[in-house]
Model the fold of this input.
Amino acid sequence: MSTVKLTVNGKAVAVDVEDRTLLVQLLRDHLNLTGTHVGCDTSQCGACVVHVDGRAVKSCTMLAGQADGASVTTIEGIAKGDELHPMQAAFRDNHGLQCGYCTPGMIMSAIDIVHRHGGQLDETTVRHELEGNICRCTGYHNIVKAVLDAAGRMKVSQAAE
Amino acid sequence: MYQTTYHRPSSIDEAVSLFGKSSEAKFLAGGQTLLPVMKQRLAGPSDVIDLGKIKELQGVELSGDVLTIKAGTTYFDIMQNADVNKAIPAIAYLTSVLGDPAVRYRGTIGGSIANNDPAADYPAALLALGATVKTNKRSISAEDFFQGLFTTALEDGEIITAVSFPVPAKAGYEKMRHPASRFALTAVFVAQTKSGEIRVAATGASQSGVMRVGAIEAALKANWSPSALDNVSIPASGLLADIHGTAEYRANLIKVMAQRAVAAAG
Done:
């Protein structure tokens, strides 16, 4: 057992876990943040993507101990109170989800994509960048639309800040 | 995953000392292979020694005609690095088609070559560019380092610290990506050194892991152009065959990927 100290969605936490605990298990089983999903558990599907120190990573492929001292943001941490994050709002407006299982990972990856590319996003880039996130319902069409829509909204909201 | 004990040393010396005190330790780099393997219980190390917080394993240096990438540098940081893009853009390109964005944030060049997956990307770059693998004990040429499927010259407790690449005159990499795993179904790295030597390496093709391709090197030495390979035939013996492609298919891919890589190298 070890004590892992990290910041999750802006809040400092210390959690006693077995050394073999994965970051996704710490989030879901110890902190009850079940918005982060486990899809494949083999690093393929991206349902478990969270931000660790600003980088979108697969939390099923990282030990909790590796996140010691890090700042982690999950899907629960991106809205401002009742106001959805622009990426969440764009997924809703563009019907970018059906069953919703992949959506938390999609949104966390998509925010990272917009941050990295800024205003340079086009459909080809979004499709290429989303290849680590698998959706079995939508055929990706509306997800791509949502990401492109959100890229515009995030630019606007950044400019307003 | 089996029970294990996790360590996070802050120096190479501390990591080596921890390794010596453990019964069956494994070094953890980015964890994008080791952790999935541990989750499947195909590996059950008594101790996991995380190299991720060792500062001396991070960074890129360009000094004259040598590009040195420290072993713990992530794929993402390699892709973004200005010196890599300036000195050997083919390495930046290779990195951009490796895994997916989330994997590229975690995976490291040292982890990739220590694992030596027969379909991994970096081994082809190291072999074609005539790179040198630096460890905490010695320097090993790429030729001597890669010793077959998942096998390297590394000894127990030895840690890769960096890879040094001579900056080539020209280099290119092209890959037929497996659409699900993103590993190379077959990929080829071509390089023309500053002294005029032609070196070509293929990954994802051979049953013995990454390999030089002499027939293509000879044809490109005579004429550095994609068309120089039109009549080159690569034998299928010793090549991988699986549900994704026969040995004959991969033999042809070696030629086609080499032609595309030469075109990309210019």
User: Anything to note?
Assistant: The beta strands of chain A are 2-8, 11-17, 49-52, 55-58, 71-73. The first strand of chain A starts at residue 2 and ends at 8.
